[in-house]
Amino acid sequence: MTIADMVSVIDAKVLCGEHRLDRTVHSAFCSDLMSDVLAFVNEKTVLITGIINPQVIRTAEMLDIRCMIFVRGKIPPEAVLSQARDLGITVLATADSAFTTCGKLYEAGLRGVAIQWPESEGGA
Questions:
Q1: Distance between CA atoms of 123 and 110, rounded to whole angstroms?
Q2: What single-letter DSSP state applies at residue 67?
Q3: Nearest one of 97, 106, 27, 92 to 63, comparing CA atoms
Q4: Which residues are 49's β-sheet partners?
Q5: Distance separating alpha carbons of residues 91 and 84, to the nearest angstrom
Q6: Distance of CA 96 to CAs 42, 45, 79, 114, 118, Å?
Q7: For 85, which DSSP code?
Q8: Which of 21, 26, 37, 92 could staple 4 via S-S, CB 3.0–4.6 A?
């Protein structure tokens, strides 16, 4: 799915990176816990979050995330958008909740990051 496809599916506003809407993403991950993002995200993943502080951009930079979607009508401050522009990250915003955003993208064919169920201690 391209970023342009996602913009259409979730009725998003493009906050920066308009010239990169032809990029392809292969999976999505939704979290407000950046520690979970660090643990589970891989390349060509779109990050869906309601966190709008600079930490989210630093996390995206570490994982080479090229697209982020801010949910619940949240718009990050200009300093965060400036960081995203400098790093080549496309930033979208939608008024929908994280749940609804994920559902719409899933229905359109985008899948989540594969996560392995942890082995139980003691071998249940």
A1: 34
A2: E
A3: 27
A4: 70
A5: 7
A6: 24, 19, 23, 24, 31
A7: H
A8: 21
Write down the domain spans for the chain: 3-112
- Joined tokens for residue 86: 């400098």
What is the C-alpha separation between 83 and 99, in angstroms, rounded? Answer: 27
Is the pLDDT higher at 35 or at 10?
A: 10
Edge-to-edge strands of the sheet including 111-112? Answer: 13-16, 90-93, 67-70, 45-49, 27-30, 111-112
On the question of pLDDT at 81 being above 60, the answer is yes
> Amino acid letter at 37?
V
pLDDT above 90 (res 92)? yes
Mean pLDDT for the stretch of residues 74-84: 96
- Whether residue 64 contacts residue 43, with contact meaning beta carbons closer than 8 Å, is answered with yes
CATH architecture of 3-112: 3-Layer(aba) Sandwich (3.40)
Q: Cα separation of 65 and 67, whole Å?
A: 6
